């Protein structure tokens, strides 16, 4: 019972911390003003090529501060449950975006939070219910950039999860997440480059091309193998792949122009990512097998001493674990039926 979430000794205090909430609100307000979403409209946000180049360089400088820690891909690939848990979480982000009509930037932001948090040495998620709790917190924070609705936590939990969490527990997880991410909530993602890289496309075809590129970017987001690449590399690889299919629509020189701006140490990654993007076009990420997923933890194992300590190697207030019981975590029907079946089989 000594380790759960990221050295959060401050959780021993009241679950609602006024100064942290004020800090969170200020951070969200700042990002709402300075990191507005773009839309896949027929009107470009950039008036000329000079604006594009300046914006691209600005994105390049910014994205380096929002990358997962080194070794994250190796960590994910060496742990099948982590890889499958990540896939399920991001797939749930995508499904939630469709269900709630969210901006796709919200999905990419939430995935960025998830990867950055998971890459921290002391914040590695290992249990199904914990993955879901972190995922809900990631989407909740990203969702708040779009809405001030009071029932966000209830709204995002209506479908696609095996567990339902009390608002107080999610809010604690949000504060832990925010502190672990050092309140840096406005990442440059691969989706951030979409408008920039398609500016010169004929307005009549731009929306169609953006949809094709977006589909590739979402597939790449679901595949943890792409987490080692910078967002600019993924975005350029996607548009280059689409340009192979629609040379008459996309000005290929545009890709070359931006590729020149890529840092020299990223050139090899661009070549590698382009090859992976080509393979991705021939596979269905949505049909990816999640063969290593462990069975959802039952209420007994969730509250067990050894299972609760597996969240990560950080110390936390033990009282948080005591609050994780039936009022805080609800198990949906599928899990209940499974437990009943296991109990019947055990009785036999």
| Amount of beta strand | under 5%
Secondary structure: number of strands? 2
Query: What integer is the average pLDDT?
Result: 72
Cα-based radius of gyration, to the nearest Å: 21 Å
CATH topology of the largest domain, by name, is: Cyclin A, domain 1
Determine and state the CATH class of the largest domain: Mainly Alpha
> Can you tell me the CATH architecture of the largest domain?
Orthogonal Bundle
Broad structural category: mainly alpha
Uncertain stretches: 1-24, 26-43, 284-327, 332-343
CATH superfamily of the largest domain: Cyclin-like
Shape: globular
Note the total helix count. 17
Provide the succession of SSEs. Answer: HHHHHHHEHHHHHHHHHEH
Proportion of residues in helical segments: 55-70%
Determine the N-to-C terminus distance.
33 Å
Strand order of the main beta sheet, please? 1-2
Counting copies of identical and different chains, the oligomeric state is: single chain
List the helices and strands and how they pair.
Blueprint: H1 18-34, H2 49-63, H3 72-78, H4 80-100, H5 104-119, H6 128-143, H7 152-156, E1 163-165, H8 167-180, H9 194-197, H10 203-222, H11 231-245, H12 252-259, H13 267-281, H14 299-303, H15 305-308, H16 318-323, E2 329-331, H17 333-347
Antiparallel strand pairs: 1-2
Helix pairs in contact: 3-4, 4-5, 4-6, 5-6, 6-8, 10-11, 11-12, 11-13
Pfam families: Cyclin_C, Cyclin_N
InterPro entries: Cyclin, Cyclin-like_dom, Cyclin-like_sf, Cyclin_C-dom, Cyclin_N
Protein name: Cyclin-like domain-containing protein
């Amino acid at each position: 019972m000594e380790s759960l979430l990221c050295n959060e000794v401050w959780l021993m205090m009241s679950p609602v911390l006024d100064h942290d909430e004020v800090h969170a609100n200020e951070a969200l307000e700042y990002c709402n003003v300075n990191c507005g979403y773009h839309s896949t409209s027929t009107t470009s946000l950039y008036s000329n090529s000079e604006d594009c180049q300046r914006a691209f360089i600005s994105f390049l400088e910014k994205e380096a501060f929002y990358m997962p820690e080194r070794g994250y891909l190796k960590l994910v690939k060496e742990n099948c449950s982590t890889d499958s848990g990540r896939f399920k979480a991001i797939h749930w982000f995508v499904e939630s975006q469709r269900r709630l009509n969210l901006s796709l930037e919200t999905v990419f932001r939430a995935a960025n939070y998830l990867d950055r948090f998971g890459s921290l040495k002391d914040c590695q998620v290992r249990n199904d219910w914990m993955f879901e709790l972190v995922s809900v917190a990631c989407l909740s924070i990203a969702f708040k950039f779009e809405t001030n609705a009071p029932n966000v936590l209830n709204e995002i939990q209506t479908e696609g999860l095996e567990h339902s969490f009390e608002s107080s527990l999610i809010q604690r997880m949000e504060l832990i997440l925010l502190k672990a991410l050092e309140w840096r909530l406005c990442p440059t993602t691969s989706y951030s480059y979409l408008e920039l890289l398609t500016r010169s496309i004929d307005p009549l075809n731009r929306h169609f091309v953006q949809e094709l590129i977006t589909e590739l970017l979402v597939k790449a987001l679901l595949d943890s193998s792409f987490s080692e690449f910078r967002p600019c590399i993924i975005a350029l690889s996607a548009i280059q792949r689409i340009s192979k299919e629609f040379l008459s629509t996309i000005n290929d020189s545009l890709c070359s122009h931006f590729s020149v701006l890529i840092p020299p140490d990223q050139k090899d990654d661009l070549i590698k990512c382009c090859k992976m993007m080509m393979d991705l076009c021939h596979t269905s990420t949505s049909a990816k097998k999640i063969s290593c997923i462990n069975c959802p933890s039952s209420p007994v194992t969730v509250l067990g001493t050894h299972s609760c300590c597996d969240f990560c190697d950080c110390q936390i207030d033990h009282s948080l674990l005591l609050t994780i019981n039936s009022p805080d975590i609800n198990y949906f029907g599928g899990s209940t039926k499974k437990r009943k079946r296991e109990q019947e089989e055990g009785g036999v």
